[in-house]
Amino acid sequence: MLTVSLQSDLLVGETVKDITSTSFGLLIAFLLPGLVGLYSMSCWSRTLRKVFDTFLTVNSNLGLSVVVLLAALAVGLLVTAVRWVIFECWICKKDRFGPSDFEKLDDESKLLVFRAIVDEHYRYHQFWGGMCIVIPFLSIGMFQEYWTYLSALRAVMSLIFVVAVEIISGVAAREAFHNYVTRAKRILTIKP
């Protein structure tokens, strides 16, 4: 009886951990860049600005929250397509998988380790790469909106900060993709 209870507790723990790490990975890979991208669009759209002003207050309701999150997810998926072209097809093209690499995922233990590598490296690559796409749009929108309130020194400091964040995000995205492919290829070459 005790053995069955411990085994079921372990299975539930593994399932909860898997759902949590996977959910967190998907959240940072798609929803956060999408939310930042959607917010950056509000700098140019009065209607979208009103939606965000309501969404960020106590007057927001469940329906509006769902619509904003679904719109952010849609923007995040579009950003992912642009990120894929820029990073995986152009910047990181030497770190790609070959056509037969995924055929080597023939063992369940390899698949579990591969999924962990996706959650630990690829999802972060997706976040940082997605942020590299949306940060310029957010920055341009914010500069446009607040330009009259900035002194010359604050404008220069803000620009330096944005460029630094953009460079750091780009390098982090490139390195996370490189680590993902390198570690995944090691896993794929291990004999069961």
Offer a few descriptive terms:
192 residues, mainly alpha, 0% strand, globular
Give an overview in words.
The chain is built from five helices and no strands. Helix 1 crosses helix 3 (62-91) and helix 4 (108-146) runs antiparallel to helix 5. The two termini are 33 Å apart. The chain has one domain. The protein is mainly alpha-helical. Helix content is 82%, strand content 0%. The protein has helices at 2-41, 46-55, 62-91, 108-146, 152-189.
List the helices and strands and how they pair.
Layout: H1 2-41, H2 46-55, H3 62-91, H4 108-146, H5 152-189
Helix pairs in contact: 1-3, 1-4, 3-4, 4-5
Strand content: under 5%
Q: What's the helix count?
A: 5
Note the main sheet.
none
Structural class: mainly alpha
User: What is the number of strand segments?
Assistant: 0
Q: How many structural domains does the protein architecture include? A: 1
- What characteristic shape results from the CA principal axes? globular
Distance between the termini: 33 Å
Rounded radius of gyration (Å): 21 Å
Q: What is the helical fraction, as a range of percent?
A: over 70%
Outline of this structure?
With 192 residues, this protein is mostly helical. Helix content is 82%, strand content 0%.
